[in-house]
Amino acid sequence: MPQSPAPEWIVSDAPVPYPEALAFMEARAARIADGAASEAVWLLEHPPLYTAGTSARAADLIDAGGFPVYATGRGGQYTYHGPGQRVGYTMLDVKARGGDIRRFVRDLEEWLIRALARFDVTGERRDGRVGIWVVDPVTGAEDKIAALGIRIRRGVSFHGVSLNVDPDLAHFAGIVPCGISQHGVTSLSRLGKRPAQTEIDAALRAAFAEVFGG
C-alpha cells in the first residue's frame, strides 16, 4: 500500500470552544472524503467541559459543576477536556490507509505510548479498559493518563486522543471517566514531568510520524 501524504498539522495555542472544534472536524472530514482536502491533525486545548460519547450512561455524570456538557458522536463514554490537556484531533482517511478500524485504534494507542516514552513515561494498554495507563511509581496504582475516542464517517476519522499534561485533575471528579470507577486519572505533572507545550507537540508529531508516517 503506498504511503499516505503527510497530513496538515494545525496547532492552536488558545483554548478552542468545543462546538467550534466539532464543526471544523465535521467539515474537514467531509472534504477529505470528497477528495477536496488533505488529512489533518489538530493539536489544541479546550476550556473546561465534559463530553458524552455514544456509550455514555447518565449515572456517570456525577456533577457537572457548572461546566458545559456536550453530546458527541464519538465512541466511548464521558470524558473531561480542559486547560493542561493536549487534545489531538485526527482527521485521517482510514479507508485509504487500509480500512482496518481495529488497527487504526491500536495505532492511535501506539502514538500515545511512543509520545509518552519521549518523557521516560511507560504508557500501557489494558484489556477491557480504553485509553493509556501508567503505574504510579509511589503507590503502585494504575491510572489513566490518556484517552481516545473516534468516529468514522465515509471512511474518514475525526475526534481523536487527549493527553493529560497538567490539567486540574479534580475536574475529573464530576464524571466516571470512560465509565471506569476502579482506577483514577493522572498526568505528566503528577508523575514529575513538566515539559513545555512545544515539547509536547514535538513529541506528538515525532511519534505520529513513526506510527502513521508524515
List low-confidence stretches. none
CATH C-level label: Alpha Beta
Structural class by SSE content: alpha/beta
Number of helices: 3
Radius of gyration: 16 Å
Mean pLDDT score, rounded? 92
What's the total count of β strands?
11
Instruction: Provide the helix percentage.
Output: 10-25%
CATH fold name = BirA Bifunctional Protein, domain 2
CATH architecture: 2-Layer Sandwich
Please give the alpha-carbon distance between the first and last residues.
Answer: 15 Å
Order of helices and strands: EHEEEEEHEEEEEH
**Annotated CATH homologous superfamily:** Bira Bifunctional Protein, Domain 2
**Shape, per Cα inertia axes:** globular
Strand content: 25-35%
Can you walk through the features of this model?
- The protein has a single domain, classed as BirA Bifunctional Protein, domain 2 (2-Layer Sandwich).
- 23% of the residues lie in helices and 28% in strands.
- The protein is built from three helices and eleven strands; from the N terminus they run βαβββββαβββββα.
- The protein has helices spanning 18-33, 101-117, 197-212; strands at 8-11, 40-44, 49-52, 69-71, 78-81, 85-91, 124-126, 129-135, 142-153, 156-164, 184-185.
- The protein is globular.
- The model has no long low-confidence stretch (mean pLDDT 92).
Looking at this protein, list some descriptive labels.
alpha/beta, eight-stranded mixed beta sheet, globular, three-stranded mixed beta sheet, 214 residues
